[in-house]
Amino acid sequence: MHQSLQLTLPPDVALDDAAFQQHVVRHLGLQQAETLTIRKLKQSIDARSRQVKVNVSVEVYADETAPPAIAYQKSYPDVSNKPTVVIVGCGPAGMFAALRLIELGYKPIVLERGKDVRARRRDLAAINKEHIVDPDSNYCFGEGGAGTYSDGKLYTRSNKRGDVRRILEILVAHGATDQILYDAHPHIGTNKLPPLIADMRESILQAGGEVHFNTRVADFILDNQSEAMRGVITSDGKEYVGLGVILATGHSARDIFELCHQRGVYIESKPFAVGVRIEHAQSLIDSVQYHCDDRGAYLPAASYSLVTQTRVNGVQRGVFSFCMCPGGFIVPAATAPGELVVNGMSPSRRDSRFANSGMVVSIEEADLKPFAKFGPLAGLELQ
Prior knowledge:
It contains 9 helices and 16 strands. By secondary structure, the protein is α+β, with helices and mostly antiparallel strands. It folds into 3 domains: about 60 residues, Alpha-Beta Plaits (2-Layer Sandwich), CATH 3.30.70; about 180 residues, FAD/NAD(P)-binding domain (3-Layer(bba) Sandwich), CATH 3.50.50; about 110 residues, no CATH class. The strands form 5 sheets. It has a 4-stranded parallel β-sheet with strand order 6-5-4-10, covered by helices on one side. The protein has a 4-stranded antiparallel β-sheet with strand order 11-16-13-12. The protein has a 3-stranded antiparallel β-sheet with strand order 1-3-2. The longest helix has 14 residues. About 30% of the residues are buried.
């Protein structure tokens, strides 16, 4: 028997594995089933009323074999001798691009200016304890990118950009808990990400791809006739060439943006926002969102999302919260000496006594007029 259910349950039932399983068995009268698979498909907390509920979509297989929880199989072809593609940056975009290229029969060569995920820890300790910033190895740069040591939320505002489920399954195949497949706001956590990132790198290497750390790109190799980018030159003068180049360098690689502009590679500015990061007691957010003094043993640390419109000097501005981290910490995220930049993060348990969030205001075209001479780099100059 295969059956799907939509359930609305109290937190102590929905969020306790044993209690949830027992409830489903009683609900369907399956006490006599010889084999039973109960699998959550979607889970979200509804705290709109004073009585907090959890909405759960679940599928049940009784006395029949359930299909695998994920369709994705961690099996890749050998691309050791296949045509190459150069990828600059070993953050999420670069790593997923490498895996996809392998699936399509191409050999990725991944170049990362920072260190591997384990070696990054020493540089993060230097930032926190000694206030020393390595411009190539910090909270933003290094294997896994910015999210590895500053949270690891899995969120997109658009489901039209590709197969989001497939991305989640790849993460599960490399060590993430299957809870990310059904949580409304999936989150891996800073403490869980490093081994997952290392396992993704191992998949790339075992398939015949290459990953090079401490390798900063200094110039591009451009085909003057086709205007295509065929490769890159690193700071030590080494050349890497292929069928093409994927720039997966992230938002803080300002030198790459400037290099693109200098070499005539078309770039355009995108909207962004600036602001501050604010911190509160997690108990305050819990009391506001859950309408209680103590959220108890089952409800997770509460989060929030705020947005409003305001007018300043006759100009309407959007003000909104960003990257809210329940049960988390504020961390120094500078990528160069002399900067004061912060970010937020949460461990997987989200059990810190504090919550934090960015609170930002959108930058309008008028704000960039004093920097118009910099063209598409005007926003960087404003920063």
